[in-house]
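User: My collaborator sent over this chain with a note saying "see what the structure looks like." That's all I know about it. Can you take a look?
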Amino acid sequence: MLLNTGFGTVTSRNDAIMLLEEDLADAVVVCRPVIANPDLARRWQEDLPLNEVDQATVYTDGAAGCTDYPALETVA
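Assistant: Without extra context I'll predict from the sequence alone. Here is the result:
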């Protein structure tokens, strides 16, 4: 079963861990965190800081806010 915390709430790393540890899901689905962090799996695995989602670019046309977030190696 795939699960997340719901459309109105961004699923955090801690939320995902809880859903898996409590056997509520086989996998956790995320959208906004993975858009803002192209390397989200590594960041969550190593408990590294995340890029913040730019809400002004969510659900807009173009690449801004969709493909322009940096991976951790490129963050200054």
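A starting point for your reply to your collaborator: Residues 1 and 23 are 10 Å apart (CA to CA).
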